[in-house]
Amino acid sequence: MFISFEGLDGSGKTTQAALLAEAARAAGWEVVSVREPGGTAAGERVRTLLLDPEARIAPWAEALLYAAARAQLVAEVIRPALDRGATVIADRYVDSSLAYQGVARGLGVAEVLEVNLAATGRLLPDRTILLELPAGRAAERRDAVADRIESEAEHFHASVAGGFADVARRFPDRVVVVDGSGPPADVAARVQAAVGL
Ligand code: TYD
Q1: Which protein residues touch ligand 1 with a CB less than 6 Å away?
Q2: Which residue of 7, 43, 116, 148 has the fewest C-beta atoms within 10 A of its own C-beta?
Q3: What structural domains and CATH numbers belong to the chain?
Q4: What is the pTM of this model?
């Protein structure tokens, strides 16, 4: 099974991806955890470029760099893990590109989806957990030192939030919206229910 976590920076998805991996391993599942962008030697180099506050990157270059890191991660890690029956838990995947590049950067959801389907051999998750927080709460939780994407203006993050809502509407069979507020253990219980653990 392939599970991805999505949400704004500061939505708690990294914590929840780790808690789900822990619970799934305790239940006897073989789990492979990945994070995006990165997770491979080539992908981590692309990540460094993408998150460098000094880098000047045009919107389509940005979308294609995220897709390139993802293509490498699928080829090197995700596909082989799924083929041997492991569960893959991804901290971000294609839907981040749809929300950040497709909607917030204005490239178009359909266009960004098309390049990502090409890059991944049309691999989409079985389940996507979209962690939702009341507007403004994610910003409060964001790191003090912002990377190139985090340092975007507040209207950009509002646009990303709208992008994720759009993604949830487009893929109702795959995407489950989970309330990310409250103690992490409570959120984790909601996440586990959403993946049938
Ligand atoms: P992430 O590693 O989740 O940041 P953090 O660990 O600080 O939460 O993601 C890095 C940034 O990249 C984040 O601001 C979201 C952005 N991003 C995109 O814009 N498009 C994408 O396809 C992905 C995967 C991430």
Answers
A1: 9, 14, 35-37, 51, 66, 92, 96-97, 100-101, 149-150
A2: 148
A3: 2-195 (3.40.50.300)
A4: 0.95
